Amino acid sequence: MIELKVGQDVEMEYGGSAKVISEIGRGGQGIVYLVKYNGMKWALKWYDVDKIKKPKDFRRNIQNNIHDGPPSDKFLWPKYLTKENDEGTFGYLMELKPPSFDSFVDILNTYKLEVDPLTGHAAKRPVRFTNLFAMVTAVINIVNAFRQLHRAGKSYQDLNDGGFFINVQTGAVLVCDCDNIAPDGSNFGIGGKPGYMAPEIVRGIAKPNVQTDKYSLAVVLFKLLFRGDPMEGEKVVKDVCLTESSELKHYGQNAVFVYDPNDSSNRPVRGIHDNVIKFWRIYPEYIRDAFIRSFTTGISDPNKRIIENEWQQLFIRLRSEIIMCGCGRTNFTSMYEKPDEKTFKCPRCGMEFTSLGFSNRDYRMPLFVGCRFYECEITPGSDDFQSVAGELVENKLKAGYLGIKNCSTKTWKVRMPDGNYYDTPPGKGFPIWKELEIDFGDVQAKI
Predict the structure, then answer these.
(1) In sequence order, which residues have a C-beta less than 8 Å from that of residue 261 and are 6 or more positions away?
(2) CB-based burial of residue 319 (10 Å sphere; 0-12 exposed, 13-18 middle, 19+ buried)?
(3) Global model pTM greater than 0.85
(4) 99-125: per-residue pLDDT in tens?
(5) Is residue 292 within a helix (H) or strand (E), and if so which, with residue range?
(6) What are the residues whose beta carbons fall under 8 Å from the beta carbon of 281, sequence distance 6 or more?
(7) Which residues contact 328 (CB under 8 A, 6 or more apart)?
(8) What band does 1 get if pLDDT is binned at 50, 70 and 90?
């Protein structure tokens, strides 16, 4: 591989050159450099073409992706190609990761190693989601990114824990390593990372495509939520050294989900898989059922794997069922007591929360100061899970008086305590009371 030097100029395909500033990191396919081009700083991925099976076709695919553009702003997409040098080596420019984003690997490890440039001393910096809401939002963003990618007729092909950067404060997501993305059905020799590959790829009977992406996506989601491997249980632990043949067995030929309801041979082991054991109990049944389907029937039949839209709806529901209690306890409604069908009770402090029922779904949203609902929850057919439609706030003039603020762009009709309906335009609010009814247009809600 022809490595670049600091200060070296790299010619770009359509004119000009990028100047190498420093090295950012190394991977299986090459090196990423910090460069300056047209007065801006970029990341340059520079390939070791000896590690690419079909470098000409691979480069042409990146060129096509640049032409097509990213499926959404959640992708660190290739922007500009370099010229091929005499040895056939090339690279591409992409935008730099914002400093507020951490790698998926660091999030799974819960820390990042930071080296002091002056002393060379390495220290651990904690990397954790600021709250449960941010983590579930990150999950929704990951799912939505791949929904958009697959709707564009492309597959990621090498989905693993190195493919994401996440803002742990907001849940915003950036998908990286987009150079392996190709039209569904095309493949340039990319196989995948062990533990993330679909069983049919591990067995060598299929190539990466949208269906194998769906399996890998389920693995990513499981690792983020349960902090463990969905196939690593007692059976895997008994193999002291995971050889290529044992990986073929545990992840391909005889893959068994750790919570397969019909096969208990690979259950999580206490003292080793404590996170999985702990979090499996915490998540509601409909989330557990989705992963059971993904890693049982979804193992043998790719067509039975959960599609991105279904994942998205499940996690939008999960986000709406988070309760942030005044005592500091934050968890899903499934972990709260339920005195009646409309009320949730904190098992720690006894605080009770009423809930809002919506006409377009069969589950209720708990009400607490700061809780929100989104456009996709009150507008049929909407895919907008980011725009806040309503928020429960405390009256600025009367402490303890709660109401819902209309954060949308539409006027709602609301039943007030006098029994009449009144218009509530954007920016205005109305009080919470026991017979509250809201007409959003096509969807209604009531206490």
Answers:
(1) 292, 296
(2) buried
(3) yes
(4) 999 999 999 999 999 888 888 889 999
(5) helix 285-294
(6) none
(7) none
(8) low
